[in-house]
Design brief:
alpha/beta, Beta-carbonic Anhydrase, Chain A, 2 domains, 46% helix, binds cobalt (II) ion
Length: 216
């Protein structure tokens, strides 16, 4: 076996030993099931692992990651994760976590063809177009890049509130909060963007579904 790959299994054994030394019941408790309070929708970037950067343990956060932490309304994988976590696991907080230095956002700012991913990144170009006046007014390219990372998180938070899943949760009286968060790869710090949404009031009228109380 290739050494770097084999090392993962050596590390795993050490982790199991360390963990059970600290807490003998750790795995038997987790084997009973999960009831995480958080859903994390983050970027696939290897530098932004949900549990590590939040000091949480297995069982604490349900995770969905894709390139540039997108909430795309035709993405069955994301919708399934969202539906399951809200309606079965009962998560209370959905966090969209973007990060400065995001390669996906950077690529979306350019015009180079990369491959299949171009079609995915087009969703970020739509965010750019929505905020074109603000972004084009920023002369420094790094600052413009950082701002697009932030605006992309904001739009993905809005996209979550447009889903029937989130709107029905609110209609059924669930305490569900949707948050926008930025991770800074330079400092390791997470920043709440102060754009949390916990009810239907801020959703634009064209996106509001008639209330559905049938899904209890
Ligand atoms: Co990224």
């Amino acid at each position: 076996m290739i050494r770097s790959y084999k090392k993962l299994f050596d590390n795993n054994k050490k982790w199991v030993l360390d963990t059970t030394t600290r807490d003998e019941q750790f795995f038997s408790n987790l084997a009973q099931g999960q009831s995480p309070e958080f859903l994390w929708i983050g970027c696939s970037d290897s530098r932004v692992p949900a549990n590590d950067v939040t000091g949480t343990a297995p069982g604490d956060i349900f995770v969905h990651r894709n390139i540039a932490n997108m909430v795309v309304h035709t993405d069955m994988s994301m919708l399934s994760v969202l539906d399951y976590s809200v309606n079965v696991l009962g998560v209370k907080h959905v966090m969209v976590v973007g990060h400065y230095g995001c390669g996906g956002v950077k690529a979306a700012m350019g015009n180079k063809q990369v491959g299949l991913i171009d079609n995915w990144l087009r969703n970020i170009k739509d965010v750019y177009r929505l905020h074109e006046a603000e972004l084009d007014a920023i002369e420094n390219e790094d600052d413009r890049f950082n701002r697009l990372v932030e605006l992309n998180v904001q739009e993905q938070v809005f996209n979550l509130t447009k889903t029937s899943i989130v709107q029905n949760a609110w209609a059924n009286g669930k305490q569900l909060q949707v948050h926008g968060v930025i991770y800074d790869v330079h400092t390791g710090l997470l920043k709440d963007m102060n754009i949390s949404v916990g009810d239907i009031s801020k959703v634009e009228s064209v996106y509001k579904f008639d209330l559905d109380y049938t899904l209890q």
